[in-house]
Amino acid sequence: KKGSPISNSISIGDYQLELSTHKLFYKQEQSKTLSPKDFKLFYLLSEQLNQPVSREKLFMKYGMGKKFMIAKQQHLALRKLLEKDTTLSIDAVKGVGYILSKKTNSPHRN
Questions:
Q1: Most CB atoms within 10 A, among 20, 71, 81, 96?
Q2: pTM higher than 0.85 for the full model?
């Protein structure tokens, strides 16, 4: 099945998320246990890394209803959790939804 986790955890940047416990690790040190809604949001965004996820998909998949402010609060909370890794960002995409981006470091930039 597409999108099914192969292992018990997913890694993005310097973060690792244990799927069974919802524990988020930063450089192998536990930083937080995610709430069920934060976990679902992070998991969905990570499944579509570098691709926008529509608000409608978030609402349908996670039963958030049309509670835009709750989704926005979760997005902001998750952004704060991931701020230690400067290569990761969660941003609102106007008129679409949200995106989790992983920036690649280019050593040849001037």
A1: 71
A2: no
